[in-house]
């Protein structure tokens, strides 16, 4: 009789442990709702630039700064970012200057 009681207690304890390990969240069911926004980020080799593609529209960025116009073709954006033009040089200098200002302001605020 004692063995039966111990076995029942063990089963109850095991059941409790299983419940403790179970997630309280509902299982994730993926549905294609059509409202999802897919963002693709592609780094350009040997450069600080990336191509962001969102909802079929691509544009070039450096960090948080957008550098190119929107395009339907990511290859066009990639080619545009690969060109070293005066406009691109000025853009990069302005991005770096803005980044420096923000970092200096954060350092001054801490001091």
Characteristic terms for this protein:
111 residues, alpha+beta, 4-stranded antiparallel beta sheet, 49% helix, globular
Question: Helices and strands, in N-to-C order?
Answer: HEEEEHH
In round numbers, the mean pLDDT is: 77
Main β-sheet description = 4 strands, antiparallel
Contiguous uncertain segments of 5+ residues: 13-25
Using the alpha-carbon principal axes, give the shape: globular
Proportion of residues in β-strands: 15-25%
Distance between the termini: 74 Å
**Helicity range:** 40-55%
The neighbouring-strand order within the major sheet is: 1-2-3-4
- The class by helix and strand makeup works out as alpha+beta
Task: Explain what you see.
With 111 residues, this protein is of the alpha+beta class. The chain is built from 3 helices and 4 strands. The chain has helices at residues 2-21, 74-82, 86-110; strands at 39-43, 50-54, 57-62, 65-66. Strands 1-2-3-4 form a 4-stranded antiparallel β-sheet, with helices on one face. Strand 2 (50-54) and strand 3 form a beta hairpin. Residues 13-25 have low confidence and may be disordered.
